[in-house]
Amino acid sequence: MQTTIRSAITFHGTGLHSGRPVRLTIRPAGAEHGVWFKRVDIALGDRMVPARWDAVETSPLCTLIRNRAGVSVSTIEHVMAALAGCGVHNALIEVDGPECPILDGSSAPFVRGILSRGVRQLEAPVRAIEVVTPVSVHTSGGWARLSPASGTQMAFHIDFDDAAIGRQDKVLDLANGAFVRELCDSRTFCRARDVEAMRAAGKALGGTYENAVVVEGDQVLSPGGLRHADEAVRHKMLDALGDLALAGGPILGLYEGHKAGHAMTNALLHALFATPDAYRVVLCDESRAARLPGWGVGRHEIPAVA
C-alpha cells in the first residue's frame, strides 16, 4: 500500500549553493497526493511545486524544479532519495527558501528523521513503473539506461583524474532497505580546484569541509576522510535514486549510469515516458513491493558513520 510519514519532522540548515539559512519540514500527505514542495516564504500566488520529472529545469550541479508560475525549489535530490529509500510515496515538503538544506551532504539526516517518525500505510495500492524494453540516452561523455529487471536495481561507473576518487564501479539491488544501509550516508563531493570557479558563478556558497567531501589529487581534504572507500560512486547512486523518484512512482528496472549526472537522469525519464511501449504501470502486490526500496527498513540499519 502507499505510505506517508506518521508525523511532521523539521530540519534546519544551509543551502549548499545559496549559502542561506533554510528550514525544511516534511509533513504527512494522503493517498494519491505524491510529493510536492511548498514555498512557505512566498505570500501570494502559486507556492506549490510538483516533485515530478516534467517540472525539472536544467541547472548545473543540482536538481531544480519549477512550477508554471515560476516558483522553484533546488537541490531536492537528497531529500527525494531519502523518501524513496524509506519507501515514502506521499509527502508535503515545506521550505522557507529557494533551496533545500544540504545538512551533512548526504541523505542520512533526512533518513534518520523520517524513520524516527515512522511510516504509515494508506488505503491505496502502490503503482510502480515497470520497464519492459530498454531506453537509453547518451552524451559525448557518458550515458544512462533503464532496462527490465525484477526489482529496483542500479549500476554506476565514474572515472576522475584525481586519485582520491579515480575509477569506481558499484552494482546494488535497492530492495529491502539497501539504500539506507549502503548509500544514504555518502556525501556530495567536489575537487578543490573547482571550488573557486563554482563560487565565482554563484554556486557552492554554503559549501564547507563538513557538508562535502573535498579532494585534491590523492588527498581527501575533509576532516575525518571518507566514510566509504567508494563514497563518491555511492553518492552518485544516491543522487540518481533521488532523480528517479521524480518519475511519479517507484521504478521496477535496472538503472545504469556511466559518468551520468542529474541532467542525464532526467533526460532518461523524458525518453522513457516518450516511449509508451517501454514501460507499463503495475499495481504492487506484496511480492512486487518487497523488491522496492524501503520495504521493511528500520532505524537500526542507518550506518553508524552517519
TrEMBL record:
Pathway: Glycolipid biosynthesis; lipid IV(A) biosynthesis; lipid IV(A) from (3R)-3-hydroxytetradecanoyl-[acyl-carrier-protein] and UDP-N-acetyl-alpha-D-glucosamine: step 2/6. GO terms for molecular function: metal ion binding; UDP-3-O-acyl-N-acetylglucosamine deacetylase activity. The active site is at residue 262. It comes from the Bacteria. Zn(2+) binds at residues 78, 235, 239. Its EC number is 3.5.1.108. Catalyzes the hydrolysis of UDP-3-O-myristoyl-N-acetylglucosamine to form UDP-3-O-myristoylglucosamine and acetate, the committed step in lipid A biosynthesis. It catalyses: a UDP-3-O-[(3R)-3-hydroxyacyl]-N-acetyl-alpha-D-glucosamine + H2O = a UDP-3-O-[(3R)-3-hydroxyacyl]-alpha-D-glucosamine + acetate. This is UDP-3-O-acyl-N-acetylglucosamine deacetylase. GO terms for biological process: lipid A biosynthetic process. Gene3D superfamilies: lpxc deacetylase, domain 1 (3.30.230.20), lpxc deacetylase, domain 2 (3.30.1700.10). InterPro entries: Ribosomal_Su5_D2-typ_SF, UDP-acyl_GlcNac_deAcase, UDP-acyl_GlcNac_deAcase_C, UDP-acyl_N-AcGlcN_deAcase_N. Belongs to the LpxC family. It comes from Pseudoponticoccus marisrubri. Keywords: Hydrolase, Lipid A biosynthesis, Lipid biosynthesis, Lipid metabolism, Metal-binding, Zinc. GO terms for cellular component: membrane. Its cofactor is Zn(2+). It is an enzyme of class 3 (hydrolase). SUPFAM superfamilies: Ribosomal protein S5 domain 2-like.
